[in-house]
Fold this protein.
Amino acid sequence: MGVARNAVLWAADNRWLRAHLPRRRWVRRSVARFMPGETVQDALEAAAALAERDLPTMFTELGENVVTMSEARSVAEHYLHVFDRIAERGLDTEISVKPTHLGMDLDPEATLVNLEELAAKADEHGNWLWLDMESHPYVDDTLGLYRKLRAGHGHVGICLQAYLKRTHADIESLLPLDPTIRLVKGAYKEPEDIVFRSPDVIDEAYRRLALRILQGKGEVGRLALGTHDVDLIERIAYDAGGHDRFEVHMLYGIRQPDLLRMGAESHTIRSLIAYGTFWYPWYLRRIAEKPVENTLLALRNLVTRG
Ligand code: FDA
C-alpha cells in the first residue's frame, strides 16, 4: 500500500504528467467525483444545494506556489470577491487558503498583508479564514503567519498534520493563543525521519493531539477533525465526553452519507469544496489516500471513455 501511495504522490509532483494528464477527458471525468466544477459559480451552486441538506461548507480555490506576487495579489482579490458573494447568497461557507498560493515562498511580508486583508474581510462578514498546511518546508512560516493573524483577528484557523512528529510541540506553542485548529492526518510525501509511518501510530497521534487541543483551548477556539475516519472520530468523541466538543470537516464527494448522519446526530459538520483549474496535484493527493480503489475507479473511466 505504501508503494502505491508513494507512486501516486510521485506522479503528483512530476512536471511532464502535470502538464499532460489534466488534458485527458477520462482524467477530467474522474476528478468530477471530488469537485463540482472549476469555477466559483460551480462551488456556490454546490454549496447552495448542500445548504438545503443542512450541510455547511468551506471553499478553497486550487493552486499553490505562485511564481509572482502579482499572481498572489490576484488570488487574494479573488478570495475577497468570494467572501462577498458568499455573504450575498447568505451561505454558511468559510474559506481556506494555501499560504504558497498567496505568495508565502516569495515574500512572506506581502503575503501577510494579503492574509490580513482576507482576515479583515472574514471579520466584516462574521465569517472565518483558514490556513491550509502544505508540505514540511512551509510549516514554520505558516505557523508564523498564523500567530501574526491571530494576534489581530478572532476568526482565523490553521490546519495541523498529525503525521508530523513536531505537531505535538506546535500545538503546545499555539494553545496560549486560543487557536482554531483543523487537525488532519497529512497528505504529502515527506522524509521518513520527520513523520510517523504506520497508520496505527498516526491514528493514535491524531487521537492524543485532538484530546490535547480540547483540553487546552479557550472560549473562541474551535477544533475541527478534518478526516473521513469515522471510527477515529467516534473514539475521540467517546474519550472527549461528547460529540459537541468538536466539529467534523470532510472533503466534498468523500463519505458524505456519514457526514450527514453525524450532522443529524448533533455533530457540527462542514464539507470542503475545492474548485479551480489547477486541480491535478490536489486530485492525485486524493487518489493517494486510497490508492488501489481510486486508481481502479480512474481506470474504469479510461476504459469507458467516450
Ligand atoms: P484515512 O486515509 O485513514 O481514511 C479513512 C477512510 O476514509 C478510508 O478508509 C476511506 O474509506 C475514506 N477515504 C479517505 N480518503 C479517501 C479518498 N481520497 N477517496 C475515497 N475514500 C477516502 N492535508 C494536508 O496535508 N493539509 C491540509 O491543509 C489538509 N486539509 C484538509 C481539509 C479537510 C476538510 C480534510 C478532510 C482533509 C484535509 N487534508 C489536508 C487531507 C488529510 O491530510 C488526509 O490526507 C485525508 O483526509 C485522508 O485521510 P483521512 O483522515 O480521511 O484518513
Summary: The chain is about 50% helix and 15% strand. The chain has a mean pLDDT of 91.
